[in-house]
Each structure stands twice: as structure tokens, then as C-alpha cells.
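FORM 7B: Structural annotation worksheet

SECTION A. Query
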Amino acid sequence: MIIISGTVSLDPSKADAFHVALEALVTATRAEEGNVSYGFYVDPLEAGTYRIFEEWADQAALDAHMGADHMAAFMGQMGDFGVTGIELHSYQASNKTKFM
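SECTION B. Predicted structure
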């Protein structure tokens, strides 16, 4: 399993437009084969900062996602949101067990 986590920061005044774009992206991505989970979550302490968490079955699924039309459309909109920073990290996980 591949895990992607990190943050994206943007102009807080653009949050409503960002949420509209996210709705389309998240809906399409969660329907992709090999997607285990996918989400952007508002950071309650940093205005305009979103925490990203994704789980993918394998590299092929992640590669397909990165080449998907809905991902290209979303990336094409990123300049509209006043993005000030993106930091994402990829992790290889050998197993997943329930914690709670």
C-alpha cells in the first residue's frame, strides 16, 4: 500500500472555490480502482491550510490517478486558489491494522 500525506496552503479567501473543486476531485478519485481512501481536511488552527491523506493499493493505481482527467482538471485550477505551499510525502506500508 502507498500512503500520501501532507499539506496544501492557499489564500483563505479562495476556500469556497477550492471546496467546489475538491468536491469534484474527491468524488471522482474515490471511485478509482485501487483507491483505498482519499481526503482533504481543513486544519482548524491554520486558515487556508488543508491536510491531505491518501491510501492506494499499489503504484499502478497511484500512477493511473496522477494521469486521470479529473486530476489534470484540478491541477489546472490550482493557480486560481492562491496556493502558497504544497508539501506531500509518499510512504510504502507493508500492512495496515486497526488501531482503535
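SECTION C. Observations
The helical segments are 15-30, 59-66, 69-77. The mean pLDDT is 96.

SECTION D. Sign-off
Analyst initials: ____
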